[in-house]
Every structure is written in C-alpha cells, then in structure tokens.
Amino acid sequence: MEESTQDKEILVNQENKPVLAQSSPKQVRLAISAFYFMQGVCFASWASRIPTFKASMGLNDAELGSILFALPAGQIITMFFSAKLTTHFGSKKMLRATAPLYAIALTFLALASTGWQLAAFLVLFGITGNLCNIALNTQGVAGENYYGKPIMSSFHGAWSIGNLTGALIALGLVNLKLGMYTHFWIVALISLTNVVFSSKKLLDHNSKPDVPAEKTKFFTMPQGILVLLGIIAFCSMATEGTMFDWSAIYFEDVVKLPHNKAIIGYASFMFMMASGRFLGVYLISKFGRKNLLQISGAIISIGMALAVIFPNIIVAIFGFMLIGLGVSSIVPMVYSIAGNNKKVPAGKAITMVSSIGYFAFLFGPPLIGYVSQLSSLRYSFGIISVFGLLITFLVTKIKAIN
C-alpha cells in the first residue's frame, strides 16, 4: 500500500521546540521520568487491589468486567478536549494541575463499598488519569527532542518501574494487612511531593506546529497513518489492559496461588515491561522501529499462548514476562512517531492515536470478564493472543517506518 504525501510527512521527525528551557537536558529527562514513575505507582496501586475489591464485594467475573468498563469510559470522555487543553495551556501547566488530581482520585477508590460506587470513582480516576496522560506524553515528546536522542521508551520505562514499585508496595502492605485507604493516601502524598519538586524542571513547551494550521473542528478524526498507528496501539493496549486488570486474578483462579501471593503474576509482567522499555533505546537503534514492532507482536502471542496452554506457576510467570517484554516498546514507539510530525500539534496527534488505542481499555477488560463467565478465564486470555499477531501484520502496511 502506497503512502500519500501527507502520510510520509507525518512520519518525518519534526522538532516541537520548547519555548523556555532553564534546565539541562539531563534535569529535564529526570523530571519527566519522575512524573511517569509516579503515574505508574498510582495506577498499580489500584490494579494490585482489584482482587481485594472483587472478594470484598462478592463480584463474579462478569460483574467485575462491567465495573472495569468505568475506568476507560472516563478516559474516553476526556479525549474530546484533553488535546485542546494541553495545546492551549501547555503540558507543564497541565501536569501541575492534573497530576495532583489523579493522585487524590486514587484515594476515593478506597471509599467505595458497592459496585456502583466503585464504578463512579473509577470514572473520575479515568478522567483525571487521561488528562494527566496526554499532558505527560506531550511533555515526553518535547523532552525527547530537547534531549536529542530517542528516549521516549525510557520515559515509559519509568512508568513501568513505577508500576512494578506500586505492585510490590501493594504486595507488602496486603501482607501487613494495612488498610486500603491508608495505602492509597501514602501513595497520593508521595505523588504530591513529586509535583512540587519535579515540575520546576519541566519544559515550558509549545506543542503548536511552526506553521499555523488551518482552523479545525473541536475534535478531528485521525486519518492515514495515524489510523494504523492507532490500531497498533489498540492491540497493544488491549493486551496491557488484560494484564493490568486480570493478571492477579488469573494467578489466583487459574494458577491457584493464594490471594496474598497472586500479585506475583502482575509483578512479573511489569518487571519485564519495565526492563524492555529501558532496553528500547538500544533495541530501536539496533533493529529499527519497524522490525522491533513486528518482533514485539510475535513475542506477545508466544507468551500468552504459553500462559494459557501451561497454567502452572513457572510457565505462567515466564509467559507473563514474555508478554511484558512484547508490549514494552510498542506504545512508546507509536506515540513518538505520531508526536513528531509537521502538520498536527504533538498533543493532538497523540490524542488521535490514543483515542483509538484507549477503546481497547474500554472493551478489553469487560470482554475478558464476559467470556470468562461464559467459559473460563483461560479461554478469554487465549483470545488476546491474537492481537500480537495482528500487530505484526499491521506493521507491514506502514512502509515508511524505519
């Protein structure tokens, strides 16, 4: 399939210049990484406690799947204006405002005592999380250009390290029998402290293109290569969403680990996801983005197949680690390609791609719950393995990626 001139231009690495950079590139990289890290800790604090919510509320798989629908629903709601806000106010101001809101929204989850209350708080958690996410990835693209090297995957690696840290904190606190509300407030206070100190080193970033663009609608549907990038993100995020929401439950219900040890499955996935993202800079330079995307898709399918076919603790952990390695660099590469373009502001381009990708979070976790209720959790995980193969196939259709 031949790319149009517009599609080729989208793939050109165009620098989105910071308006003001009082910090060194290393300081900027560290500050941005700190925000990614804390966003990962906040998310993992919720994800690691999902089995606790399921048990305390007496939910079956289908009921839990329906409730999990609320988090991505909140994320989707903000897709229609998050890019506009980030472009208008700048990613630095948006992060200063939304990162504290995201941390505080986490604490509300612990107040839920019924399914509908949990769903309502998850919508709020999703809204604040996506506003923070778009601003953070826009700041990440600016930081990558300011640093002068392809370090976007290392930013997402910091998120994964935060996720792993959050999972390990949860594992320790669950075994210490510390209350969830106290747990979430400890994380929130650490996040608020990070905002105070790290935001000073962020870039005052102008995400608008150098050439003034024609006036567009409030929300523009993605076109051309951005659609294919969005579908690739969808497949990766569907896999990630399954692992975030269901991996601990899979180890409890299928692998048959006790409740206080089931987080090991989630932690093993996150360990390799973090490792893969820090290796991403080297792997991209060695294999190129196109080859790495194709390899990653194949690894996802192999890992998921192993965990489903051989659900004993050793093979399942190995399979989950392969899945973590497979998904590790896909979204960072997709965001970097989308965010470095000539005609669309970075925040808007990332939103176009992520608006497709986040539908995976919207439909993936509930689908797992419904299929599991009708058959088994193993069958529902088996369906997800197809997405890895789809990633490998779709990458071949984007010839301009190198």
TrEMBL record:
Please report the record's description of how this protein sits within the membrane: Multi-pass membrane protein
Point out the coiled-coil segments of this chain.
none
Q: Which Pfam families match?
A: MFS_1 (PF07690)
Checking InterPro entries in the record gives: MFS, MFS_dom, MFS_trans_sf, MFS_Transporter
Instruction: Indicate the segments forming the Major facilitator superfamily (MFS) profile domain, all copies.
Output: 28-400
Q: Where in the cell is it found?
A: Membrane
Bilayer-crossing residues are: 67-87, 157-174, 180-197, 218-239, 263-284, 291-310, 316-338, 350-371, 377-396
Q: Which interval of the chain is the signal sequence?
A: none
This chain belongs to the protein called MFS transporter
Whose protein is this, by species? Pedobacter jeongneungensis
